[in-house]
Amino acid sequence: MTANVEVVFGRALVLTVRVNFNYSLNSLMWEYQNKILHITDERVTINHTVSLPVNSNGSIFSTLQITSVTHKDAGEYSAIATNIDGRRFISYNVIVLGKVK
What is the pTM of this model? Predict the structure, then answer.
């Protein structure tokens, strides 16, 4: 599933996903253009928030934020969760609007 997300040049982009899991979650990562997103830009942050109830089921909220978006930030971002049962993902096609040189 891919959702289009429009953001205005110079504004912040915030993408949040919720991953529900039963007993195990091996990894949760973000990709950009089908490559693991390594944070080398101070404008980019990734935060994970875990919600664990009394039983073994839980949720993780993962937020990717880019402040002051430029046209270089346009493209496909995916959040990918894996565990013993396989892999699931959600993708966003980010479209940057405005200020074309």
Answer: 0.87
